[in-house]
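Hello,

Our lab assistant flagged a job as stuck in the queue for most of the afternoon. It eventually completed. Since we weren't sure the result was trustworthy after the delay, we are filing this so someone can double-check. Below is the sequence as submitted and the structure that was eventually returned. Let us know if re-running is recommended.
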Amino acid sequence: MFIPNFLLKNYSFHYKLNFITAYLKSLLGLLQMVGREVVYKVLVPVVFIVFSHAKLIVGKKLTP
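-- returned structure --
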């Protein structure tokens, strides 16, 4: 789901604004439909990976 550039050039600012708000609403709806469990399943590993990389960069053990 992306906004094609050639579509936006041919329409007025008002139409663009409506299109973008509808796009954001559909994204939000999709997030709500997917639910928190999936979001946590995705977020927790990402946070863990970032944290472990940060630990490597800092050079200290942040976790026992």
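-- support follow-up --
The delay was a queue issue, not a problem with the job. The result is valid. The two ends are 43 Å apart (CA to CA). The chain has three helices and no strands.
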